TrEMBL record:
InterPro entries: PTS_EIIC, PTS_EIIC_3, PTS_IIC_cello, PTS_Sugar-EIIC/EIIB. It is a multi-pass membrane protein. Keywords: Cell membrane, Membrane, Sugar transport, Transmembrane, Transmembrane helix, Transport. This is Permease IIC component. Residues 12-427 form the PTS EIIC type-3 domain. The chain crosses the membrane at residues 40-61, 73-98, 105-127, 147-169, 198-226, 238-256, 298-318, 338-356, 363-387, 407-428. The phosphoenolpyruvate-dependent sugar phosphotransferase system (PTS), a major carbohydrate active -transport system, catalyzes the phosphorylation of incoming sugar substrates concomitant with their translocation across the cell membrane.
Length: 455
């Protein structure tokens, strides 16, 4: 009977790991993960500028005129980062897709992705001038509202589709223009890609023209309506988000880093949500998204995956009750890294990996933290987090900064931390008893040197 249970568990574990790793290695999802990871410093720079403009400068400077001068700094930085993120993202997605597909001209794929992004933009926009009440139609301009976070899905679509088409067309021999060997490589590559690039741009041009002529809108707005909004509704659903996140935690239990799954599926969504939040925060508008990367870091991942800082606190608080010296050693070694969100020492040192008694709290504690944080937000005790901070920001500091200085977020974090600590305690005690029992049942190592001496 025990063998049958173990066999079932092993089959499930193997199948889950294989599926998760395969999903994490899917080339298009992997390219999105790489692209968003590359853009991360820009998002954090935006967060710093937003924090200065909306919190620090108003707190220090009381004269409105002088405050405006100082806020020009933050506004300029935001314009060069968050407000043009679509323009930055499209070529990055195209570049990484080409690299991950081992295509030998990744930089041209990036250029084509950026070019085709502009191809599908509207030819005219409706804008409201300063001190005016009615919008006017203008041509020859691109407003920041189109280049910013609102069009990120369009950037992803263009980067993936443009690069995919370009790679496919470049492999058709009849589309390749061959040049003599004496021609410089850069010129040769340009002629090689000429016909494929013309074909790809033509396809996007036709899409743009048909969208305007038949649907009376632009292609970017169409993508936002048909793809971006439905995807955001699914991914921003609390229970859907927590299910995916828990699958990542389960993957970590089997020794595979959760970012293989969560970084691929949740990372882009979290980044899009926090960019929208930062934009709204900077404009002093209501924050639109509760779920974001900052929500996860503040309420579901204090100390790293599994909220293991709570586990460490339980080890220190209940040291006598748990009474297992190896745990004490691991806790001391893991505390420093854990404060900065690095928890591999505790995951592999305790261990949590393949330690059945630790599976339940490792998945449960982050879910409880997320539910508490979500409830505190929907009852307006705290507002949605709106400023991106570096991933290694220590707990409590992260909540204070990502909320723009709201101390109530830290209170919620403290409550979650206390609850998580007490949830971990009984399972740590059970894990200690299990490990002690295993040590008693395992045969003692044979001292071969003493044995030989006796002979």
């Amino acid at each position: 009977m025990e063998q049958a249970k173990e066999s079932w568990w092993r089959r499930f574990a193997d199948s889950f790991v294989k599926f998760s790793v395969k999903l994490g290695q899917e080339v298009h999802l992997m390219s999105l993960r790489d692209a968003f990871g590359t853009e991360m410093p820009i998002f954090i720079t935006t967060g710093i500028a937003t924090l200065l403009n909306s919190v620090v400068f108003p707190f220090i400077i009381k004269d409105p005129k002088i405050l405006t001068y100082f806020q020009n700094f933050g506004s300029a930085v935001i314009n060069g980062s968050l407000n043009v993120i679509t323009v930055l993202l499209a070529p990055t997605v195209g570049y990484f897709l080409a690299k991950n597909k081992k295509f030998d001209n990744a930089i041209f794929c990036a250029i084509m992705s950026l070019s085709n992004l502009f191809v599908i933009m509207a030819l005219k926009y409706s804008v409201t001038p300063d001190n005016a009440t009615k919008p006017v139609s203008v041509t020859g301009v691109l407003p920041y509202t189109v280049l910013g976070a609102n069009s990120m899905f369009a950037a992803i679509f263009v980067g993936l589709v443009s690069t995919e088409l370009l790679i496919r067309f470049s492999k058709v021999k009849n589309f390749q223009i061959k040049m003599p060997a004496s021609v410089p490589p850069a010129v040769m590559n340009g002629f090689k890609m000429m016909i494929p690039s013309i074909l790809v741009t033509t396809i996007f041009g036709i899409l743009a023209a048909l969208t305007v002529g038949l649907l009376h809108t632009d292609f970017i707005s169409l993508i936002a309506t048909l793809i971006q909004q439905p995807f955001k509704r699914i991914g921003s659903n609390l229970f859907g988000y927590m299910f995916i996140y828990s699958c990542g935690d389960l993957l970590f239990f089997f020794g595979i880093h959760q970012s293989v799954l969560n970084g691929t599926l949740l990372g882009p969504l979290e980044t899009m949500n926090i960019t929208e939040n930062m934009k709204a925060f900077a404009a002093h508008q209501p924050i639109p998204n509760i779920i974001s990367g900052e929500f996860r870091m503040a309420y579901m991942q204090m100390g790293g995956t599994g909220m293991t800082l709570c586990l460490l606190m339980a080890l220190f608080l209940f040291k006598k009750q748990i009474d297992y010296k190896p745990f004490d050693t691991v806790a001391k070694l893991s505390l420093g890294p854990g404060l900065f969100m690095i928890n591999e020492p505790i995951i592999f040192g305790l261990p949590i990996v393949f330690n059945i008694p630790m599976l339940f709290p490792f998945i449960l504690v982050p879910l409880v933290g997320g539910l508490i944080g979500y409830f505190a937000t929907i009852i307006h005790f705290v507002e949605p987090l709106a400023i991106m901070t570096p991933w290694f920001t220590p707990p409590f500091v992260s909540g204070f900064l990502s909320s723009g200085g709201d101390w109530k977020v830290v209170v919620v974090q403290v409550i979650i931390f206390i609850v998580g600590t007490f949830l971990y305690y009984p399972f740590l005690k059970l894990a200690a008893r299990t490990l002690k029992k295993q040590a008693e049942l395992s045969p003692e190592p044979v001292d071969t040197a003493a044995s030989d001496e006796a002979k």
